[in-house]
Amino acid sequence: EVQLVESGGGLVQPGSSLKVSCVASGFTFSSYVMHWFRQAPENGIEWLAYINTDSSSTHYAETVKGRFTISRDNAKNTVDMQLSSLRSEDTAMYFCAREGNYGSWGYFDYWGQGVMVTVSS
Amino acid sequence: DIVLTQSPALAVSLGQRATISCRASQSVSTSSYNLMHWYQQKPGQQPKLLIYDASNLASSIPARFSGSGSGTDFTLTINPVQADDIATYYCQQSRELPLTFGSGTKLEIK
């Protein structure tokens, strides 16, 4: 069974840093592109970043470029997102997701349950 | 960025057809693929893939869900609607980065 489980959320102060992690199981992790998304309370879904299978390529949304860093460890089946210079508007549920690899590209067939990050003083 | 526009809410009677639309600010189709995908999200849960490439049913999704469209106009149809379908439905494009989502259509029972 495919599973994605996020961890590392919490309450942090503005300007601080936090790392959210996602551990994968039930599939060959190293064969899949992975992404991070977020969803602010009562809001829509925002794509944040992706990392390809061997970490040679990453892309970020403009809203987080330079502040967030995605990385993966294929030996540990994990994909992380380092969040820095956090602002109140970064308060959201953060999800990792697996990109599907049948048909085209850029859709997500499995998502984690999410981890909440709250930025507040 | 490609903007995806969805109606905020739709009210449908149980057993009837629900048609949820999504319009893109520019074409999301290539010569090979219609790069529009649909997700269902219930409160407190993660999104769930329903349809990929505009019309392909994702694994384990019941056949009463279907998708259609190309270019800039896409539709998700649920027929017949069941009580378990009460959720918010999002379209998402992968024609170009940044990947973007519609603002969601909340399906309600009439």
Give the strand tally of chain A. 11
List low-confidence stretches of chain A.
Answer: none
* Mean pLDDT figure of chain B: 97
Average per-residue pLDDT of chain A, rounded, comes to 97
Using only C-alpha atoms, the radius of gyration of chain B works out to: 13 Å
Backbone structural class of chain A? mainly beta
Q: Return residue spans of chain B where pLDDT drops below 50 for at least 5 consecutive residues.
A: none
Q: Main β-sheet of chain B: number of strands, strand sense, barrel status?
A: 7 strands, mixed
**Order of helices and strands of chain B, N to C?**
EEEEEEEEEEE
What share of residues of chain B is helical? Answer: under 10%
Labels describing this entry:
heterodimer; A: 121 residues; mainly beta; seven-stranded mixed β-sheet; four-stranded antiparallel β-sheet; B: 110 residues; 11 strands; 0% helix; globular
Short note summarizing the structure:
Chain A is built from no helices and 11 strands. With about 120 residues, chain A is mainly beta. Chain B has no helices and 11 strands.
Describe this structure in words.
The complex is a heterodimer of chains A (121) and B (110). Chain A is an all-beta fold and 121 residues long. Chain A is built from no helices and eleven strands. In chain A, the strands form two sheets. In chain A, strands 2, 4, 5, 6, 9, 10 and 11 form a seven-stranded mixed sheet that branches. Chain A has a four-stranded antiparallel sheet with strand order 1-3-8-7, with no helix packed on it. In chain A, a hairpin with an 8-residue loop joins strand 9 and strand 10 (108-111). The model of chain A has no long low-confidence stretch (mean pLDDT 97). In chain B, a hairpin with a 2-residue loop joins strand 7 and strand 8 (73-78). By secondary structure, chain B is mostly beta strands. Chain B has no helices and eleven strands. The A-B interface holds A 35, 44-47, 59, 61-62, 95, 97, 100, 103-109, 111-114 and B 32-33, 35, 37, 39, 41, 45-49, 52-53, 56, 58-59, 90, 92-94, 97-104.
